[in-house]
Amino acid sequence: MEKIDIKDVSHQLLGVNLRKHKYSDHEQRDTNKLRPLCRYLFQTNSLWKKIKDHKYIVLISLFFGVIYSLISLVNHYYFRTYALDLGVYTNALYDYIRFQSNDSCVFKNVGENLLADHFDLYLIFFSPLSLLFGTYTLLIVQIIAVLYGGIGVYTFFKKIKKNIPVAFFATIYFYVFFGVFAAISFDYHSNVVAAALIPWLFYSVARRNYLVSSIFLILIIVSKENISLWLFFICVGLAIEHRKDIYLRNYLIVSSIFSIVSFIIITSVLMPLISNAGSYAHFHYSYLGNNFTDAFIHLISHPIDSVKVLFTNHTNDTHGDFVKMELHVLLVTSGILFLIKKPQYILMLLPIYFQKLFHDNYSMWGIGGQYSIEFAPIMTIGIFLTISELNSKRLIKYLSLFVLLLATASTIKTMVNTVYYTDKIRIRFYEKSHYQNSYDVSNVHKQLSKIPKHVVVSSQSPFLPHLSLRDNIYQFPIIKDAEYIVYSDKENPYPMTQDEFESAINELEHSKDWEVFYKKDITILKKISL
Q1: Parallel, antiparallel or unpaired: strands 523-527 and 484-487
Q2: Residue 500 CB: number of other CB atoms within 10 A?
Q3: How far is 126 from 169, CA to CA, in rounded Å?
Q4: Confidence of residue 168 (pLDDT cuts 50, 70, 90)
Q5: What are the CB-based long-range contacts (under 8 Å, 24+) for 293-298?
């Protein structure tokens, strides 16, 4: 191979021939400035060489990135993202980039610091990106985070276990896991980003890189208040995994203590301190008691009954029948039984089981939304670690493929038919209906763009995320000081019933306080100025 002369390259890029051209002092200065760039482009460990060396995982990640975008970004364009939760969180981006707190007035009549609802600091970190990506910001962040998590899985198995075939299988498994697809199809949630960081935590722990491990630990903790409880179990499980390494084991024990203390401080001190009610707002586990202390005592004193609840409908709502069983079946078909050989990974999943299956709301038990994303990193690493430790390379390859096919089938099942109702159109990226709506979407976007950026808006849920980058916006029927109201009778009337919705819009359209700004696919009312 011919040796590349950096000086020649730099001169060619400047349009100067070193051998035939006597260049001026000005050209010499330009050449000197360009040489570092040329040196970087042609050094052996350049970025492009790294991409070429890992071209297959890059292509796999790009492939799933396209699929995730066809699900998430298309849903947003076609008004299948909602006030809760993308609208609320995007409105928070607007406030945080201006160094002000968010008052939760998108969905609350009385203002309250959004951190009292969920202790999510990621939104503060991501807020500058809203200047570039607008209302798509958090969806793009979520997609990139999941891809980063998949690359973390690949890196873990390639560099720690030195098994490239398993690394590929595990990465694809992570990408196709039903909990990942469900989360991508429903708005944005910071626990998805946190779950995607877990493989990198595992990798940094395995490398004995305590500083990087601590950074990931803190980054994961600040995603949401309940994640630190999950991290306690993860760190305990990892301490068992690395019990023969006394320094690493002790580090993980300290990390587990730090995690549980963080959970207690956040949920028992910080969130109640900024809450209007002076208490934590999301303990919805009446079967276990009135607070986390009651829950702990109940689980310890009634272990058999508690285990039974993991499989049965403990509410009086018949809509919850078989919802838990569907989750268990999908987890089994996704390979969770492999974790029997590594019970420390089952330990890591206990808080996820508990927070889902003891909940008062049966919709939390199911396979939809963001409520199963935490299974993805733990099952991926646990299952493929178990497989990679087998003695036969052929058996490793066949079992890896078998588990991957089962996981893919499980995800397809969630797109086709489920016990608990899920909006299939949001996840069926392969169907024409996914790229359609019952009204002219482009025209609706055009009409929404005519609403001034500085005015206060009350908007029906599907339209609110697109209007949320403003100081004040409310989910209809909250109106308060709104100057514009946006709604459509072609969309779900949530949070009202159909009768309540029709009554409300009828009253508004006949009111002397409002005039019709636009009425066709959507209705936009404008406040009449006195």
Answers
A1: antiparallel
A2: 12
A3: 31
A4: very high
A5: 295/358
Q: How far is CA 168 from CA 16, 149, 163, 388, 434, in A?
A: 47, 13, 9, 12, 30
For 218-229, write each residue's pLDDT tens digit. Answer: 999 999 999 999
pLDDT at 15 over 50: no
Q: Is 55 helix (H, G, I), strand (E, B) or coil?
A: helix
Q: What is the pLDDT of residue 316?
A: 85
The sign one gets for the Cα dihedral 362, 366, 371, 374 is positive
How much is the pLDDT for 20? 46
- pLDDT, position 45: 57
pLDDT tens digits along 480-502 = 999 999 999 999 999 999 999 99
Distance CA 13, CA 5 (A): 13
Give the start-to-end residue ranges of the domains of the chain. Answer: 6-43, 53-79+118-426, 441-527
Sign of the CA dihedral with 194 first, then 410, 75, and 463 last: negative
Q: Cα 51 from chain centroid?
A: 26
Query: In angstroms, how far is the first alpha carbon of the chain from the final one?
Result: 80
Structural element, H or E, at residue 462: none
Q: Give the C-alpha distances (Å, rounded to integers) separating 205 from 111, 212, 218, 379.
A: 42, 8, 14, 17
The model's pLDDT over 378-422, given as tens digits with 9 standing for 90+, comes to 999 999 999 999 999 999 999 999 999 999 999 999 999 998 878
CA distances from 373 to 86, 190, 197 (A): 17, 11, 12
Average pLDDT of the residues in 318-342: 95
* Token couple for 40: 């970087």
Residue 519, token pair as written in the block: 């009425």
Rounded Cα distance between 343 and 63, Å, is: 33
Query: Which range is most confident: 6-15, 23-32, 101-110?
Result: 101-110
Q: DSSP assignment, residue 341? A: G
Cβ atoms of residues 197 and 381 within 8 Å:
no
Amino acid identity of 268?
S
Q: Phi/psi at 73 (nearest 5 deg)?
A: -70, -35
Q: Does an H or E element contain 457, and which? A: strand 457-459
Half-sphere exposure of 230 (CA within 13 A, CB side): 25
Residues 6+ apart with CB under 8 A from 67: 429
Q: Are 302 and 379 in contact (CB under 8 A)?
A: no
Question: What CA–CA distance (Å, rounded) separates 466 from 459?
Answer: 10
From the number of C-beta atoms within 10 Å of its C-beta (0-12, 13-18, 19+), residue 454 rates as exposed
